[in-house]
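RETRY 2/3 - previous attempt timed out on the joint model. Re-submitting the same 573-residue input unchanged.
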Amino acid sequence: MNGTNNAGPPRESRPRRPSNAKRNVAFIFALLVIVGSVLSVDIKYERLVDLPAGIWLVVYKMYFERGPDLSYLGVSIEHMVQSIEIAWVGTIIGAVLSLPIGFVAAKNVSSGIISNVFRQVLNGIRAFPELVLAVAIFIPIAGLGPVAGALAIGIHSVGTLGKLTAEVVEGIDAGPVEAARASGGRWVQIQRWGVLPQVLPEIVAFWLYRFEINIRAAAVLGVVGAGGIGFIVQQTIVFGRFPLAGTALLVVIIATILVDTVSGWVRRRIIEGVETRRIVDAEIEQPALVDGSAA
Amino acid sequence: MTVAAGAESRRPAKPRPSLAIPIGLVTFAVITWISVSREFGIDLNLGELAENITRGARILVREDTNPADRGLLNPNWVFLTETAEPMLETFAMAVLASVMGCGLALPVSFLVSRVTAPNGLVLSIGRAILSVIRAIPDILYALLFVAAVGVGPLPGILALLFFNIGVTVKLLSETVDGVDPGPIEAGRASGATGMQTTRWAVVPQILPNYVAYSLYVFELNIRASTVLGIVGAGGIGRMLYREYGFFHWSNVSVIIVELFVMVFLIELVSIWLRRRLV
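RETRY 2/3 succeeded.
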């Protein structure tokens, strides 16, 4: 930007220091937003003093006063299993819907306008959290219960999965596609034999990754009555039955870590076959960072 | 190029079909069958669902004399003024949580990266704690903090804070794992302490990523903070849930449109900034 600044003969050979103006403006703007937030948010700052004690009291009541109530283990596990089932079905719904949409949204195998339209649709879907989808759309349709939760998770997943699918499809090797076209394949045949085999391992890995994220979502849907363990965690906390809440929370943590571990292992096995692009957890997030996808 | 005679016979043997795929497919089928079944699962019945879609349609287009009671497709725009304050609170919560969360995440990720961890013990204990932190969803944090400090935006910010630390530290510590070791060696060779090496050899390398992750986390926070109010942790979620409870679909509709616009705008700005940074 400062390279254009060459009015007058250069007096020194040393280049001019790049201007910080833009950065400073951005910095001041960010600072104003932060200060504005501090001032506007209605927090009783004197309550901050009691904060550590308050948090400790909850933890103490859950785990140390009488220990977590293990007689609640059966009920908790039953509800957690339902959460996992919701996440599983939701992920399948998301996967089935997002696969064709992802292909249509990829610039290289679809046409420009269509791919743009579908990209915006995917962006739009991502804007609504699962809980909002559940409350505003799926509980009214399917009634209270796990089916509404699974549908909410499924539709929300379409947003991210469709976008990731489109990105993977855009990164394919064009060779097989040309070969399929040269031998007279129709569009669907080209996708099936030229594109799908190239992208499937990565896309299946995304599905599993999404399943891991959906487990967390399914663990909270219960707070609006959409099934799973969220309901009993909320009820036990609201009614002050902390030893029970402690057990339920423990079940959530252990089950989530277990599913993460198993799913992560399977993902790594699936991807091992793909040599060109290795995906470990972080790299699934990173391409998204440039283009602004979100969980 | 000459083709060696007998190339046919030197063709490598076809690999034996792997058992992994059939095992995977069977596992998939079994879990799916259990999950949708009436006895053990969530009882997903597509026929019933198709019938119920009409119920959804009624909510979309319902007519009523009271503007708040109309369907989702008739937003009650008068309601917009009432939503301004909780929307602002939602935004402020996300800002504060992002600032605090990302501020805390930077030092923490140095503790749990193989490159910069002071010793193996800190590394493994830190990672174990973080996987527990990541295993608890944001709304459950909000429930716990509401129980601890009462309703309002404070428990919401705390919930987002924990959620942020989980996400940011994971992304950032993996970035730290992947830094170019050259500057670190140079730092060590010139006699720098661990802290100094981190400050001068690692931080400059990860800074662009760090800023990009922070913006990304801010986006996640905006989305997350819209629903925390459902459990009493501040923001627009509380109003959304209340209007839903009254079946005021036209008001729910206004909030949904607002959420959509806010999330979309912030994402646009954030993507634009990240493109320039990365």
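The domain at 69-277 of chain B is CATH 1.10.3720.10 (MetI-like fold). Closing ticket.
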